[in-house]
Amino acid sequence: MSETPTRMTRQRSILLEVLRESHAHPTADELHSKVREKLPNVSLATVYRNLELLTNQGEIRTIELPGMPRRYDGDTYPHYHLHCVECGRIVDIDHRVLPDMGTLLKKTGRFEVLRMRLELEGICEDCRK
Ligand SMILES: [Zn+2]
Ligand SMILES: [Zn+2]
Q1: Residue 60 belongs to what domain range?
Q2: In terms of pTM, does the model score above 0.70?
Q3: How far does the centroid of ligand 2 lie from the alpha carbon of residue 1, in Å?
Q4: CATH of the domain at 88
Q5: Nearest bound ligand to CA 90?
Q6: Distance (Å, rounded) from C-alpha 119 to C-alpha 96?
Q7: At CA 11, angle to CA 20 and CA 16, rounded to 5?
Q8: Angle between helices 44-56 and 10-21 in degrees, nearest 10
Q9: Sorting pLDDT into bands at 50, 70 and 90, what band is 110?
Q10: Which of 22, 87, 102, 119 is least enclosed, having the fewest CB within 10 Å?
Q11: How far is the CA of 16 from the centre of ligand 2 (A)?
């Protein structure tokens, strides 16, 4: 294939659109079935390849937690996650709840923060009922 890395294919832009609409931090499998509603012939391998490209281009983020399939996040604005250890859901934490640690670290000097990952583990409201 002679595809240039920066060219946004239709498959990739639909994938990005689907991911940005979702706030559930879906897996590649979940994204695949969503994308197939719009592009019935798209393969899981293509979805994986495009997810990798989008990650490398900084368009999306990945969330990796031990023992769980990799999840994807269309929101690249720095934010933190709450992970429910009962049902596995990952929800965004309102950025106003926690201090912006990137800025805090910058204020200490010396260290340039490139990216930050913070996942808090707990039990969600539904699972506590
Ligand atoms: Zn839960
Ligand atoms: Zn998120």
Answers
A1: 10-73
A2: yes
A3: 33
A4: 3.30.1490.190
A5: 2
A6: 16
A7: 10
A8: 80
A9: confident
A10: 87
A11: 14
